[in-house]
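Whiteboard transcription, Tuesday session. T.W. wrote the C-alpha cells on the left side:
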C-alpha cells in the first residue's frame, strides 16, 4: 500500500540530533537515526525537518540563540542539497516531488525562544525557507507556556500562563508571512488561546488523546476539537518512553480511531518526530517501519481513502492552501 500513496511525516529532525551521551545512557534503546539522504529507502516521500530554537539546545553550545538556529537551518539545507532532495516552498513542490521520486522536505523551527521579541527574525527564517513554526518546545518562553518540561518535568499550574500578548502578535505575523503554526508542546491554555485567535488552520504535529491517557503532551478532547475547528491537523505519534505514549500497534490504532471519531480522518496525519525521540512503541522503530503504521490502520478498519488522507493527503491540502 505504501508504494502508491503520497507519504509525508509532518514532524522530524535531521540525523545526529540526539547527543552521543544520551545514547550511551539509554544503552541502545534510542531508535536508530534515519539519514535524510536515505529516506527513499523507507518508502516515505518526505517529512518536516526542524531546527531547534529553545535554550536546551543553544545554551549548552554557548551559542547566540538566533545564530544557532540559522546555522542549523543552513546545515539542514546543505545536507538536502548534497543528495538532490527538494525543499518545498509550495504545495506544487510537494506534488512535483511525489511524481519525480525525489525526497521532499519542509523546513521547520521547533521552539521560538530564539526569536526573542523581534518580529523581524520570523521574517528572516521565512526567507531562509522555514514554513512550519512551532512556538514552544521544552521551555516556557515569551510566546506561551508548555505542557511538559525538559527531562519529564511536570509543569505546575502557576507556570501555565497561556499565550502572551507578544505571542499573539507573533502568531499573526506567522500567518501574514504564510507559515504553518504548529502548537505541539503547548499546554492546554496556550493551545486554546492559539486556536481561538487562529485565522488559518493550525497543526499539532505529534501528540495523542488525553482522553485515553493522562500524558501532558497529549491533547484533551476540547483541544483536539479546537484544532480541527481551525481546519487543522493532528499528527498521530508512535512515541513510547518510560511508560508514556503508545504501547504497541493495537494501541496506536485505538488512539487513531478515538481522534477520528472526535474530528474525522480529514484532520489526521502522521507525525513521528523522526530522529528526535528517545523511544517508540513496540513494533515500530523509525521510518524504516513506515509501512507498518499504514498496515495497522488498514487492519484496524480504516479505508484506503482514509489512509491516503492520513499518510499525506491532508497535509498536502493544508500546505497548498496556506502557501498559495
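and on the right, the sequence the group agreed on:
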Amino acid at each position: 500500500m505504501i508504494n502508491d500513496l503520497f507519504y509525508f511525516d509532518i514532524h522530524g529532525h535531521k540525523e545526529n540530533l540526539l547527543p552521543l551521551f544520551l545514547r550511551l545512557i539509554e544503552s541502545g534503546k534510542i531508535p536508530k537515526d534515519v539519514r535524510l539522504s536515505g529516506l527513499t529507502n523507507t518508502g516515505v516521500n518526505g517529512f518536516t525537518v526542524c531546527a531547534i530554537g529553545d535554550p536546551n539546545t543553544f545554551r549548552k553550545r554557548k551559542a547566540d540563540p538566533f545564530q544557532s538556529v540559522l546555522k542549523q537551518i543552513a546545515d539542514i539545507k546543505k545536507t538536502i542539497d548534497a543528495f538532490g532532495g527538494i525543499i518545498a516552498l509550495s504545495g506544487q513542490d510537494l506534488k512535483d516531488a511525489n511524481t519525480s521520486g525525489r525526497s521532499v522536505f519542509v523546513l521547520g523551527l521547533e521552539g521560538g525562544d530564539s526569536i526573542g521579541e523581534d518580529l523581524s527574525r520570523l521574517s528572516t527564517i521565512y526567507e531562509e525557507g522555514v514554513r512550519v513554526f512551532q512556538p514552544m518546545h521544552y521551555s516556557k518562553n515569551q510566546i506561551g507556556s508548555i505542557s511538559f518540561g525538559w527531562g519529564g518535568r511536570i509543569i505546575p499550574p502557576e507556570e501555565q500562563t497561556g499565550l502572551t500578548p507578544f505571542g499573539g502578535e507573533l502568531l499573526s505575523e506567522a500567518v501574514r508571512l504564510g507559515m504553518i503554526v504548529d502548537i505541539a508542546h503547548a499546554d492546554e491554555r496556550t493551545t486554546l488561546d492559539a486556536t481561538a485567535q487562529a485565522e488559518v488552520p493550525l497543526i499539532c504535529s505529534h501528540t495523542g488523546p488525553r482522553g485515553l491517557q493522562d500524558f501532558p503532551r497529549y491533547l484533551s478532547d476540547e483541544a483536539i476539537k479546537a484544532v480541527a475547528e481551525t481546519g487543522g491537523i493532528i499528527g498521530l505519534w508512535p512515541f513510547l518512553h518510560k511508560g508514556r505514549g503508545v504501547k504497541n500497534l493495537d494501541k496506536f490504532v485505538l488512539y487513531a480511531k478515538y481522534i477520528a471519531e472526535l474530528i474525522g480522518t480529514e484532520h489526521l496525519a502522521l507525525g513521528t518526530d523522526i530522529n528526535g525521540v528517545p523511544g517508540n512503541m513496540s513494533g515500530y522503530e523509525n521510518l524504516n517501519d513506515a509501512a507498518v503504521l499504514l498496515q495497522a490502520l488498514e487492519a484496524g478498519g480504516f479505508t484506503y481513502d482514509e489512509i491516503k488522507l492520513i499518510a499525506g493527503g491532508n497535509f498536502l491540502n493544508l500546505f497548498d492552501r496556506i502557501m498559495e
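Someone added at the bottom: The radius of gyration is 18 Å.
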